[in-house]
């Protein structure tokens, strides 16, 4: 029985650790960026975000091609898949990876690592991990402790964002990317010169 997107929803951390909605021509991309791009496309397919999918898919394919990774099965899936759950399966995401499934466990670790992405709460005080949406509702005597907890959560989220590219390198290596290509870099301008039509969206 195929795995549903609901079974894999905990693995979806869209736009984390990086979003690609507004790229400047001088920005660089590496093989590890494909992990976020591919996972985000799965989320967009599931949510019927056709406008974003119409940018993330060609960007991903152009990067696969420029980096010489078109022989990976993930490239073909990014070309053809219209199901978010099926795309995640090809990426190596499984609901409960066993102890010898290095790729599945890497995705599991990634989802746990990025479970607290750094995001703006929109509250007046502006702290993304504020324990009470309205700071004034927190009992006065508990505010110092609550602020300390919120600051620690924010620090944890920032640390996770810094660590995640290392894990993404491991994931794409497990897809089959040769180790000597992991440090390749390509600019957005180079992709545009080779035919990519640049699109931008509000972050």
Give a brief rundown of this model.
The protein has 203 residues and is mostly helical.
Structural class label: mainly alpha
Q: In which order are the strands of the major sheet placed?
A: 1-2
Q: Compute the gyration radius: what is it?
A: 19 Å
Number of strands: 2
Oligomer: single chain
State the low-pLDDT regions, or none.
120-124
Estimate what percentage of residues fall within beta strands.
under 5%
End-to-end gap: 37 Å
Sequence of secondary-structure elements: HEHHHHHHEH
What does the main sheet amount to?
A: 2 strands, antiparallel
DSSP summary: helix tally: 8
Helix content, binned percent: 40-55%
Q: Which term fits the overall shape?
A: globular
Mean pLDDT: 88
Structure commentary:
By secondary structure, the protein is an all-alpha fold. The chain is built from 8 helices and 2 strands, in the order H-E-H-H-H-H-H-H-E-H. It has helices at 5-8, 33-46, 50-66, 73-80, 84-91, 102-113, 143-175, 188-193; strands spanning 28-29, 186-187. It has a two-stranded antiparallel ribbon with strand order 1-2. Helix 2 (33-46) packs across helix 7 (143-175). The longest helix is centred in the last third of the chain and has 33 residues, at 143-175. It is globular and about 60 Å long.
């Amino acid at each position: 029985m195929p795995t549903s997107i609901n079974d894999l929803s905990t693995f979806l951390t869209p736009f984390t650790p990086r979003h690609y909605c507004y790229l400047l021509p001088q920005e660089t991309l590496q093989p590890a960026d494909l992990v976020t791009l591919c996972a985000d496309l799965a989320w967009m397919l599931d949510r019927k975000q056709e406008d974003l999918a119409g940018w993330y898919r060609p960007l991903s394919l152009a990067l696969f091609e420029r980096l010489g990774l078109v022989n990976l099965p993930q490239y073909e899936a990014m070309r053809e898949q219209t199901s978010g759950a099926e795309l995640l399966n090809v990426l190596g995401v499984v609901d409960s990876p066993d102890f010898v499934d290095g790729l599945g466990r890497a995705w599991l670790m990634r989802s746990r690592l990025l479970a607290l992405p750094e995001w703006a709460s929109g509250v007046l005080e502006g702290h993304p991990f504020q324990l009470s949406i309205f700071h004034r509702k927190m009992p006065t005597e508990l505010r110092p402790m609550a602020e300390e907890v919120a600051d620690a959560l924010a620090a944890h989220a920032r640390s996770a964002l810094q660590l995640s590219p290392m894990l993404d390198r491991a994931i794409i290596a497990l897809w089959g990317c040769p180790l000597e290509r992991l440090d390749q870099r390509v600019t957005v301008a180079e992709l545009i010169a080779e035919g990519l039509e640049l699109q931008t969206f509000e972050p």
